[in-house]
Amino acid sequence: MRKPAVVLLSGGLDSATVAAIADRDGFAVHALSFEYGQRHSPEVDAARRIAIALGVDQHKVVKIDLRAFGGSALTDDIDVPKDHTQSDTESDIPITYVPARNTIFLSYALAWSEVIGADDILLGVNAVDYSGYPDCRPEYIEAFQAMARLATKAGVEGNGATIHTPLIHATKAEIITLGVSLGVDYGLTISCYDPDQNGSACGRCDSCLLRSKGFRDAGLDDPTSYQPGVRG
């Protein structure tokens, strides 16, 4: 019998790869996605497609409203930045950062892991080719892990969940190459912060630019569906 694991599945490239890794490593994947008021809501449909394609054991989509707070171009009436250079994406924390998002998501994952008896939580945070979010750093994950051991019944009893971040030190090209080797269909995923109603990517936001560069660096065709007139 395979051990259960909670996998945060956003519908993007990284989380799809992590779900495939969890399956490869023999876990029974319990995928967790969120409708949180994000402007890039087609990613939830992508998460559902990925969950079906990977044959996960269970997939929950939880609705929360982070638009109640706003403060991000993803959850507020703020334009998504476009056409940044690589140096731009490596400087200040961008306006697409959603306040405390990974803390909120991991808290839900931690709660579900206790209910289903899962000792493992996996997520696709990355500290190499990323947009500078503070909750994607190794030190953040280590701090949350310590908190989780203190804050849960399972942790106090010595059986707290371990948080795995298998992609945290990988480049986008390395992630894509690994995912392809595991059979991930990246045409099912979406990484765009500002897709159209059909789920086609803008090709110009930070996430699109990082994704496109990853495919180029990996020497692979980019299967992303882009909006008319946009080339990845």
Outline of the structure:
With 232 residues, the protein is α/β, with parallel strands linked by helices. Helices cover 37% and strands 12% of the residues. It is built from eight helices and five strands; from the N terminus they run E-H-E-H-E-H-H-E-H-H-E-H-H.
Helix and strand layout, with pairings?
Elements: E1 3-8, H1 13-24, E2 27-35, H2 42-54, E3 58-63, H3 86-89, H4 101-116, E4 120-122, H5 138-151, H6 153-156, E5 162-164, H7 172-181, H8 206-218
Parallel strand pairs: 1-2, 1-4, 2-3, 4-5
Helix pairs in contact: 1-2, 1-7, 7-8
Question: What can you see in these coordinates?
Answer:
- The protein has 232 residues and is an alpha/beta fold.
- It has eight helices and five strands, in the order E-H-E-H-E-H-H-E-H-H-E-H-H.
- It has a five-stranded parallel sheet, with helices on both faces.
- Helix 2 links the parallel strand 2 and strand 3.
- Helix 1 runs parallel beside helix 2.
Structural class designation: alpha/beta
- Which radius of gyration do the C-alpha atoms yield? 17 Å
The backbone outline, from C-alpha atoms, is globular
Fraction in beta strands? 5-15%
Helix content: 25-40%
* Corresponding CATH architecture: 3-Layer(aba) Sandwich
